[in-house]
Amino acid sequence: TILGYTVMPSSYEPALIFILAPGAFILIGYLVAAFRMLTQYLEQRGEVA
């Protein structure tokens, strides 16, 4: 809930891997990889100094 309002239905079960500590590190790894790929792509196009 946010400010007392239900945001997700009661049947919603979050992905357990992203809640636990090892899952957070996996997610950070995916984010770092995505930003590196984006930066590399933009550098190839000549848009990043």
Key attributes of the depicted protein:
49 residues, mainly alpha, 0% strand
Average pLDDT taken over every residue = 83
Low-confidence stretches: none
Beginning-to-end CA distance, first to last residue: 43 Å
- The class by helix and strand makeup works out as mainly alpha
Topology:
Elements: H1 16-19, H2 21-45
Describe the structure.
This protein is an all-alpha fold and 49 residues long. It has a domain at 16-45. The protein contains 2 helices and no strands. It has helices spanning 16-19, 21-45.
TL;DR?
The protein has a domain at 16-45. It has helices at 16-19, 21-45. It has 49 residues and is mostly helical.
